[in-house]
Design goal:
17 helices; about 70% helix
Length: about 350
């Protein structure tokens, strides 16, 4: 069955097109100025992989609980409403929660694919064009992997969430090239790293673990790309220009925080979101998860120089300001090693079973 016919809402209702504002920048300076970006480009070439070959798609999943995540990661876990749900309703919520999150991964990867293609078009330096070209291939592979996972192992797909849609559109409609970096490479990809890692670490299904572990390796490079390019560029801007970028970061961070409220899912399940929202805001597990989601974003925002008082106040209100003390380079290097660790784990399992 085509993925198109598995959406919980008709595509006619959710189809999305808009007019962008991209410029095209040719450069005649073919001498790369950033050795760091050139090294990242070399790594991007070396770490290409084939989703058909690297991932074992024959692995079965539980049709009622494909990821086999712990109950503690399910939204509403531990709340009075959760306690009152039947086992059947809990299973339904678990399944829809998994599908909703994977659906947003799929749509976010298509957004990243389009953003990466735009970066090739409008970024001014040759080394950035080189690396962004490798990212286009990465993102196509990620769309392929999540599309296949949802199509073959899950029963349906959710449309793109409104906060994610808004942030992608904002990143693509501004004519300034760095806004695409800021929206996708720093904010969306930075949050995705943590969401992917959560599934990799807490899922007990090897297929779901594998898809997220291998995508994570690429995403760590993508976030490093945004960090390197913007860290060199933003000091050249005026204070007023940096303030505009800070406003974008603040608004984007709010959208990302709202992304996991998932009102579409709750309505689909027959809940009134007005009743669910305060429970989500107060759920200990969800509060921890929301804070951890910013663990990659905050240190990078600080590192690239968008660290004004209003940005710091917003992150303090979110309870995530302390992440600004982390070393973003070390965090991203650790994230990039996740796939290699997973390969070693699978190798040990094969050796034991053999």
């Amino acid at each position: 069955m085509s993925t198109l016919f598995k959406y919980v809402l008709p595509v006619e209702e959710t189809n999305w097109k808009f007019q962008g504002a991209a410029e095209t920048a040719f450069t005649w300076d073919y001498d790369g100025k950033s050795e760091d970006l050139l090294r990242l480009y070399a790594k991007g070439k070396q770490q290409q992989w084939d989703a058909d070959e690297r991932i074992d798609w024959s692995i079965d999943v539980d049709p009622e609980d494909p990821m086999q995540m712990e109950e503690s990661v399910i939204p509403l876990y531990g709340t009075p409403l959760w306690q009152g749900l039947s086992e059947q309703r809990r299973a339904e919520l678990r399944y829809h929660s998994q599908v909703f999150n994977l659906s947003q991964f799929l749509h976010g990867e298509q957004g990243a694919l389009i953003c990466a293609a735009r970066i090739v078009q409008d970024v001014p330096s040759i080394e950035s064009k080189f690396y962004a070209a490798t990212q286009v291939m990465d993102e196509a592979r990620h769309v392929e992997a999540y599309r296949r996972l949802l199509k073959e192992k899950f029963r349906f797909v959710y449309p793109i969430s409104k906060p994610l849609q808004t942030l992608i559109e904002q990143a693509l409609t501004d004519s300034r090239w760095d806004f695409t970096y800021l929206g996708m490479q720093v904010l969306i990809e930075g949050l995705a790293l943590v969401a992917f890692q959560r599934i990799r670490d807490y899922s007990k299904n090897r297929l779901c673990q594998a898809v997220n572990a291998y995508v994570m390796q690429d995403e760590a490079r993508h976030v490093a790309f945004g960090r390197l390019a913007l860290r060199d560029y933003y000091p050249k801007l005026t204070q007023a220009e940096r303030r505009e970028r800070e406003e974008f970061v603040m608004e984007g961070s709010i959208h990302l925080r709202e992304r996991f409220n998932s009102p579409e899912m709750w309505e689909r399940l027959g809940f009134d979101f007005k009743d669910v929202r305060p429970l989500l805001e107060g759920s200990e597990g969800q509060v921890r998860f929301r804070k951890r989601l910013f663990s990659r974003i905050v240190p990078i925002v600080k590192d690239i120089g968008l660290w004004g008082e209003r940005v710091q106040k917003l992150y303090a209100d979110f309870g995530v300001l302390h992440y600004g003390d982390k070393d973003p380079r070390e965090m991203l290097e650790h994230d990039a090693q996740v796939a290699e660790e997973f390969d070693r784990l699978l190798g040990r399992e094969r050796a034991t079973s053999g």
